[in-house]
Amino acid sequence: AQSVTQLGSHVSVSEGALVLLRCNYSSSVPPYLFWYVQYPNQGLQLLLKYTSAATLVKGINGFEAEFKKSETSFHLTKPSAHMSDAAEYFCAVSDMIQGAQKLVFGQGTRLTINP
Amino acid sequence: NAGVTQTPKFQVLKTGQSMTLQCAQDMNHEYMSWYRQDPGMGLRLIHYSVGAGITDQGEVPNGYNVSRSTTEDFPLRLLSAAPSQTSVYFCASSYGGRYNEQFFGPGTRLTVL
C-alpha cells in the first residue's frame, strides 16, 4: 500500500524567508504525487503534481517541488514567503483500487507566516 | 461553471439523528468521492463512485451510505449520527486515472452532540 509522511505538523517562517515543507512517500510502483493547499474554511486546491515528466515541478503562487527517487521525497519549497501563504498543506500519493483513483494524504502541515 | 458544490456548510445533529450531505459537480466527471478531515489525520476516504450506479467503500465507511443515480450528484447519508462522526466532510470529483487532479468542494462542518 502506498503512504505519505509529512514531517512537521506546524511550520513557522518569517515573511520573505524560504518555505520548506517536507513530504516522503512509500510506493511499490512509480508514484504520482500531489501537493494541495487548504486556506482557512475552504476546500483543497491543487498546488502542483508530479507525473514523471520532470523531476522539478512548478506550481501556482511561486511554489515548486522536486521529486527525488533516491530519497523517496517530494518536498515543497517557495523562495520567499508571503503572508497570503498561511494555510494548511497536504501531500498526497495517487493509488488505484479496482480501477478507481484513490488519493492517500499525509497528515498535513500548517504553515504560519510571521510579519 | 460552479465546480463542486456542497450543502449545507454547517450542521449540528444530536446523537441518533440522520441526515444527508449533498454534493454536486458540473464538470461531467465520472469519479466522485467523499473524505472526512480530522485534526492530525489528513483526509480519509469514506466512499467513492466511478460512475452512475457504481459505488464502493473507502477506508472509513462505517456509519455512512452513498448512492449515485446521476453523474452530477453524490449524496452522503449518515444513518444514525454518533459523536465520532464530528468532522469536516469534503466531496471531490475527477476524470479518474492516477495522474488526474481531484477537485474539492468547500466542505461541510458537522458537529454531533
Average predicted confidence as pLDDT of chain A = 93
Structural class of chain A: mainly beta
* Percent of residues in β-strands of chain B: over 45%
- Give the terminus-to-terminus CA distance of chain A: 41 Å
Notes on the protein architecture:
The complex is a heterodimer of chains A (115) and B (113). With 115 residues, chain A is mostly beta strands. In chain A, 0% of the residues lie in helices and 59% in strands. Chain A has strands spanning 3-7, 10-14, 19-26, 33-38, 44-50, 56-58, 64-68, 73-78, 87-97, 100-105, 109-114. In chain A, the strands form two sheets. In chain A, strands 2, 4, 5, 9, 10 and 11 form a six-stranded mixed β-sheet that branches. In chain A, strands 1-3-8-7-6 form a five-stranded antiparallel β-sheet, with no helix packed on it. Chain A is globular, with a radius of gyration of 14 Å. The model of chain A has no long low-confidence stretch (mean pLDDT 93). Chain B has no helices and eleven strands. In chain B, strands 2, 4, 5, 6, 9, 10 and 11 form a seven-stranded mixed β-sheet that branches. By secondary structure, chain B is an all-beta fold. The interface between A and B is medium-sized, with 26 and 26 residues.
